[in-house]
Amino acid sequence: MEKYAKEIDHIEHDPSARRLSAQGRRISIVDDVFGEIKEDGPNYRDVGWLGTVALMMKTQIGLGVLSIPAVLDTLGMVPGIIVLLIIAIITTWSDYMVGVFKLRHRSVYGIDDVGYLLFGRIGREFFGVVFVLFWIFVAGAGMLGISIGLNAVSTHGACTAIFVAIAAIVGFALGSIQTLGRVAWLAWVGVICILTAIFTVTIAVGVQDRPAAAPQDGVYVSNYKIINNPSFTEAISACSSLVFAYAGTPAFFSIVSEMREPKHYTRALIICQTVVTITYITIGIVVYYYCGSYVASPALGSAGTLLKKIAYGFALPGLIVTTVLVTHIAAKYLLLRLLRGSHHLTDNTVRHWVTWLGCTGGIALTAYVIASAIPVFGGLVSLVGALLGTLMAFQPMGCMWLYDHWREPRTTRWYLMVTWSVFVIVSGTFLMIGGTYGSVVSIIDSYKESGGSSAWSCADNSNSV
What we know:
- This protein has 465 residues and is mainly alpha-helical.
- The protein has a single domain (45-450), classed as Amino acid/polyamine transporter I.
- 69% of the residues lie in helices and 2% in strands.
- The protein has helices at 2-11, 49-60, 68-75, 77-104, 111-119, 121-154, 160-175, 180-207, 232-245, 249-257, 265-291, 305-339, 350-373, 377-393, 395-405, 412-450; strands at residues 17-19, 28-31, 35-38.
- Strands 1-2-3 form a 3-stranded antiparallel sheet, with helices on one face.
- β1 and β2 (28-31) form a beta hairpin.
- α2 (49-60) runs antiparallel to α10 (249-257), α2 (49-60) packs parallel to α11 (265-291) and α12 (305-339) crosses α13.
- The longest helix has 39 residues, at 412-450.
């Protein structure tokens, strides 16, 4: 009772929620998205701003960061950092627009609701399908990352297909926790673990004589490149991997919708993007500087067998939390589409639980199939970033600004913002088309050169470089 009284004190000034009369021990809140949130049901408005920081950072820092040193190897150190900063600026603005748009349109829960406002029913269905597919692919990449970690820690102690299945089961079980408020503590664990693993490798490659994949005889000198000369396919695929590293944007709709006080969203965003960008730049530069072209992808394998075991030991909880979080977010979207406007959404009824577990189970199963069918980590990351990440983090946000401000007075600022919004839309479209092509070619080439890993393979996938 006391918890819910405090909850009401937090949000009574929030125009998206209203205090209702207390009847005995029953206190409820009405939200524009979830409807009536009751004391005896799941509380979908229970994420504080610190929990928001953790959830935001965990959707960003996870799978994408492990491919950043390899991106610098493709583009060269200076062009790679420049492209990273450009994508950071664009996606930070896109993330900011999510919070602004939510405050202007309280009934918006996901990007499909944005699609409905912008383009009608077709927009809703299109962006809804893309949203679910994006997070399913990310969950698949997460499961693949977990299998790599389990192979590394156990020295390939079991068939890789079994490890992927274990990852899917864990993703389903923990992803079925009902609210983001209860998942937030897991996000903190995941962020701390993945950062510990990454910085362990970063320090290790700096103090070791040479990276694990480099020739072990003679004098070693890192062959890092300040500027490289990649082909179009290689360059655009690398850019897609950077987009993936910042492609947590569509999850921010779900996160802000479950915040106790959405007005604190921007504060959490600034902290998240600052920490994420500094981390990406530091890790990318240091690991690539010492490893050069011998950097592994994922990067945790760059410091040798022992350090790889230690790093993946730290990273596994972080990779698990990434899979759990994205499974939860995709399933929550489906739950809202199926039960929105019904009391079953906020009551612990049989229908609620059957629907919820069906959603989390369906997402986990589909992601498992994808992870097993496309077992190429770098290729899968760049493909997801190109085909779906840009479409979720670039074009809609430019359209959102135009939707809200098109009829405003034509000032200098208005023209600048229109130009910027159009640039975001056009650049996102270019990256989507070019990056998808480059990623597909990259996956095909990896199989031609090394044979790759076959679908549902038992082969060890922790030794890719």
